[in-house]
Amino acid sequence: MKPSSGSLLHQTKFGHIVDCIDINKQLAFDHPLLKDHKIQERPHFSKRTTKNAGLSRNRPSMIGLQQDACPSGTVPIRRTTKADLIAIRSMSNIIYPQTTKVPNTHRAVIQMRTSEFHSYIGVKGNINVYNPVVKEGSSYAVMYVMNGADEKLNSITTGWMVSPSTYKGTPYSYFFTFWTTDGATKTGCFNIACPGFVQVDKRVYLGSPISNVSIPNGPQFEIGLSISKAEDGNWWVTKDQINIGYFPAAIFNNLTNVETVGWGGIAVSPPNGISPPMGSGIFPDDNYKHTSQFRAIQYRNSSGALDGPHKYTYDIIIDSPNCYLIDYHGYIGEHEGYTFGFGGPGGDCGI
Known about the structure:
By secondary structure, the chain is mainly beta. It has one domain. The chain contains one helix and 24 strands. The strands form five sheets. Strands 3, 6, 13, 14, 15, 16, 19, 20, 22 and 23 form a ten-stranded mixed β-sheet that branches. Strands 12-11-8-7-17-5-21 form a seven-stranded antiparallel β-sheet, covered by helices on one side. Residues 1-6 have low confidence and may be disordered. Residues 100-350 form the Neprosin PEP catalytic domain.
């Protein structure tokens, strides 16, 4: 995206440029279904019950403009680079988040089972952030909401990712979102690569590099994310309870009701089939200090109540156990909630 006339810009330490764009001139409003859309500055949720986990042993990762927020009436938009376009192409492989075998894509996820008696209006969780060495392909830690199949498949995915996009030779983790409006024709969008997402926060933006990441057997840093449906049908993305923005209900053809939600890791390999590391690059075990972890994972059901994956209500999907695994701990107390480790070293995982 090019900056609008008179926009402010920030040069980040990661080498990319963030422009402060008039909130009413962001790319979202190029979408034909959003020409008369009225911006919602904050979500309005129906009455809900909560059952949140407590404080974590991890520290929060820093995302977005740390020093100066964009001025009132503007929002931060990262300029798209060649490396971003490469990442966007790789993201097309996960347009079917976890249900269909896709070439060169491997998953280690926990997914709620579908049922005609259950639907979901939100998913949340805390992910500790790592920066695995990704020389080719891309590696993701994600949570998602999903409904339908083929041309009716709609989904929203958010989390952190690492790809070979570099600054001064060093890959970095960054915050992303991806959404699907038609699975059959792969009409998915990565961050703001095409119209759809309405940015409202003045600091945290899509494509934000993550400043502090976890180190195996060292300090641990995490981000708390959620995807939640508001009363008007819009789907909001939050980071550590900051309302970053939303996907308007109008752009989806089948996301009024959500049949499943999930959490976990995805690795996309190049054509040679050598997959990158996932998570911390270490197989999960009981040592949270070196394993990539999700904690306090929860879904919100159609009644507004928060809960987590109980026995017989979820599936663990691992398509390449020689490369990646999941170690689900279940509920382990009020501080950690429902927790699991995931990841692995990658390698020759098949195609």
